[in-house]
Amino acid sequence: MRTVNIRHLVAGAIILSSLDASAAEVTRVGPFAFHSSFWISLHETLMHCATAERPCAVDSLTPDERAIWNAAVETYRTTGSGQITFRRDMRITHDVLTQIVDDDTAPKLRPPLGRALVETAPMYRRYFWAADDAANRFWIGYASAMVRDAGDELASEHARVYARPWPKAVRVDAAPYAVPVGAYTMIGQSAGVHETVATRDSGNAGLTALEVVFHEASHGLVHPVDGAVAEAIRKHADRLGIEPPRDLWHAILFATTSELTRRALHKRGISDYRPNAEELFTRAWPHFREPIEKYWMAYIDQRISFDEAIGRIVEAVPKPH
Ligand SMILES: [Zn+2]
């Protein structure tokens, strides 16, 4: 759901040992490499515990272990105050962790997050990892099966709609959590287009997994302020003398993958798939529904041009008073 570019942040950061680009890879389908990584899963668990409304259930830990665990969570809370996932230290750590093999017990990571990770790793490994890894691998099993069947078709349809080549390499990390909204994407240095998807979030389960994988990877093609979609939105907003409608770029991204996934599933016998955009256009973005359904779908069906579609949408979105 979110995306951040950290291309320039990682140089000279934390990679000191255990380099292995295939760490924790479970399966590969076309451009997608699906991973269940111990270190990413621990990182997401600590972010989750640092931001959860209720304290994490760590009853199985001994009192000494619990003290270490709570101190690590506090470190995460302090370092990641506010938008925890996209704080600079979190982004760098998240990217570097993709390169660390699961059985490395003492990777040299930059403090303070690195120390929190290394100190909690033994207890995460002892008490939680087996269940999280099983959940990750179960999700990867059915998500990758759908991508194996429909992935080429969906990738070429997305490339057609955005008039850009589909990414050559997408890393998908299945993890117990993906703070804060269940899935996000970073364009990292080590991992390329890098999705993290929460396997304990029912919003990513079942058939929706196919849509989530393609929605997140689309963040490698569609950006908030640059790229063809954002630039066309800005051009037409300038023409009308208004601000670019907030989140319109993301609503277009949602609508595109929702519709393409719905069509791919319909061809495969699923006639009642409820895409993510359906709920979002009801709950969060009702003002985008009609213009996007009318003009963006006409563009997807090649009845009007890309530029005309975006122009008509920007004109039709109700203006704030
Ligand atoms: Zn998104």
Plain-language structure description:
- The protein is of the alpha/beta class and 321 residues long.
- It has two domains: 216 residues, no CATH class; 89 residues, no CATH class.
- 53% of the residues lie in helices and 9% in strands.
- The chain has a six-stranded mixed beta sheet, sandwiched between helices.
- Helix 1 crosses helix 4 and helix 6 packs across helix 10.
- The chain starts with a strand and ends in a 5-residue tail after the last helix.
- Bound molecules: zinc ion (ZN).
- The site of zinc ion has 5 residues, from helix 7.
Biggest beta-sheet profile = 6 strands, mixed
Give the helix level as a range of percent. Answer: 40-55%
Span between termini: 28 Å
Query: Mean pLDDT, nearest integer?
Result: 90
The structure class reads alpha/beta
Which shape, going by the Cα principal axes?
Answer: globular
**DSSP strand count:** 6
* Proportion of strand residues: 5-15%
Bound molecules: zinc ion
Any key phrases for this structure?
binds zinc ion, six-stranded mixed beta sheet, single chain, alpha/beta, 6 strands, 321 residues, globular
Chart the SSEs and their pairings.
Blueprint: E1 3-5, E2 25-29, E3 32-35, H1 38-51, H2 63-79, H3 88-97, H4 113-162, E4 170-175, E5 183-187, E6 193-198, H5 208-218, H6 228-240, H7 248-267, H8 276-283, H9 286-300, H10 306-316
Parallel strand pairs: 1-5, 3-4, 4-6
Antiparallel strand pairs: 2-3, 5-6
Helix pairs in contact: 1-2, 1-4, 2-4, 4-5, 4-7, 5-7, 6-10, 7-8, 7-9, 8-9, 9-10
The chain binds zinc ion (ZN).
Zinc ion binds next to helix 7.
